[in-house]
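3.2 Worked example (two chains)
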Amino acid sequence: CPRSCCCCRRCPRPPPSAPREPAPAAPPAMNAARTGYRVFSANSTAACTELAKRITERLGAELGKSVVYQETNGETRVEIKESVRGQDIFIIQTIPRDVNTAVMELLIMAYALKTACARNITGVIPYFPYSKQSKMRKRGSIVCKLLASMLAKAGLTHIITMDLHQKEIQGFFSFPVDNLRASPFLLQYIQEEIPNYRNAVIVAKSPDAAKRAQSYAERLRLGLAVIHGEAQCTELDMDDGRHSPPMVKNATVHPGLELPLMMAKEKPPITVVGDVGGRIAIIVDDIIDDVESFVAAAEILKERGAYKIYVMATHGILSADAPRLIEESSVDEVVVTNTVPHEVQKLQCPKIKTVDISLILSEAIRRIHNGESMAYLFRNITVDD
């Protein structure tokens, strides 16, 4: 009662209120997504897990516990040794010489993680296998499209790769593909490790590689040269060379149908478009596998007056006797990234140098997991890179 009331002294005071107990916390929603992520390596060889270890060290994470091995009958077996339910999973798979085994390891691990209820499964495949088989070859098949369908069926929801042989390969997939570029790391190597690089000229060993070479030349403010007239067959010579119906002399042809005769291709002699005399020649490409074309290009550049020759490529597959051919050639240095393991080739040929690209792969993993934009990794990057 207010004090002005005459009976305020006779009004009983209300009892002190008891302290309220805190309300019990609401139980977590059954469908609440976990925010953790795990990084696994799908390789069964120690040489191929080196890149995965570098990436996890940069991320400050531990490599996921799994076992990948080949049984005595040649089958691949994968065992996941920890819970991955509701987590973002990143599978790092570098491709060794045994390509088909690596593909099966990736497919089986992705399917095992999908069965274990992982939320998202991202494949980190720096060198995408079968990328050269992305066009029709006579009565062959587009194997790269088949592999893309297999990866989607196995459970992958995203792919991180680097320098696809053809940018159009991204259209084969039904899920997002981040095609990172190694050109910033190779450009940095040129600026820091090649003495007097201002006196260099960027060389395309074929007209097909001219766009990539032009992009390097424009960024380094250097000249450009193109080698024309290779002795070997290029990919364009093999594109869709089917004859239907077959060319038969005695075949009956519709009387009103007269097809024009196709003139046979004849390659011109090897020429170098551009001045390389007294300069450092830097040949750039995306893949260096069979090195015969690079060795032939180095010989012709040496004849034209180039006094030092470098070869820069993203993926150093270096199959067969490539190290021996490089060691015996006029090439002074071959620079590749560690998208493909090539430690054995480096022991055979000291001219092979390696550039580490684990930095950009680890940053891509971090941004994808946190839902951040990937535009920073593509700054100043063009389609031709």
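3.2.1 Second chain
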Amino acid sequence: LVALAAFICFAASGAHGAYTALAGMETVITVLFLLLYLLRLDARMRFVFWPLADIFNSVIAALFLLVVALFAIIIKTNKGTLAGGVLGLILLVLCIVDVVLLCKKISLDKARGRSAPAK
């Protein structure tokens, strides 16, 4: 929802196309990951380790959001761009939280296969 709100702020304010494109892209990718997990498609498509793909997406998004949100806040051509920049920084924090939680989930899961400890 934060990505969608940032996208709407950037689009309504007539901000630079890169701001709008990044917020829109992150909105679409987030919705796709949400659908993937809600429809349990991750269990059907086992050839991709989806938590790692989600971590990779969040790290790349956080890097891009850092740059774009800071530029939007520094330049602040109007209030919509400023609001989009602030929402971008909030989204940046949420991406970092997502990475931390997914890393904990991956490292705390039981070992699989031959490397499992004997009982």
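3.3 Remarks
Residues 79-108 form the longest helix (30 residues).
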